[in-house]
Every structure is written in structure tokens, then in C-alpha cells.
Amino acid sequence: MANTPKKIKVTLVKSTIGTIRSHRECVRGLGLRRLNQTVELEDTPAVRGMINKVSYLVKCEG
């Protein structure tokens, strides 16, 4: 039985228009392109840091 990594669902709930460039890049790095799009990502410290940086733009569920 392999150890499957935990997943996090991240949804873009607020537009990136008018935000800081590095925040827009974080949203793109998470794989989010359009509003209300949801992606499922591995639960890693890097992903957590990106979510934390743009927490005002995204909704996250474990």
C-alpha cells in the first residue's frame, strides 16, 4: 500500500486584477487561470506558502 500524498482543493474566488505582480504569479503557479476555477494540489510546504501569500484571493479546503 503506497503512501498517497494529501490533497488540497484551491478555488480562485477574487479577481487578480489590481493585485501585486508577485501575487498574480503565485495564483498562476497554483494553476489557477480564471475565477471560480478549482484545482487539486499536493499538500506541500511550498504550496501552503503560496496559498498563504494569496489567501485573500483563494478559498482552500482540505
UniProtKB/TrEMBL annotation:
GO CC annotations, alphabetized: ribosome
Location of the Large ribosomal subunit protein uL30-like ferredoxin-like fold domain: 8-58
Gene3D superfamilies for the chain: Ribosomal protein L30, ferredoxin-like fold domain
UniProt xrefs under Pfam families: Ribosomal_L30
Superkingdom field: Bacteria
Record-linked InterPro entries: Ribo_uL30_ferredoxin-like_sf (IPR036919), Ribosomal_uL30_bac-type (IPR005996), Ribosomal_uL30_ferredoxin-like (IPR016082)
Entry keywords, A to Z: Ribonucleoprotein, Ribosomal protein
SUPFAM superfamilies hit by this protein: Ribosomal protein L30p/L7e (SSF55129)
CDD domains: Ribosomal_L30
HAMAP family per record: Ribosomal_uL30_B
Family: Belongs to the universal ribosomal protein uL30 family.
NCBIfam families: rpmD_bact
Subunit record text: Part of the 50S ribosomal subunit.
Protein name: Large ribosomal subunit protein uL30
Organism whose genome encodes this protein: Thiobacter aerophilum
Gene name of the encoded protein: rpmD
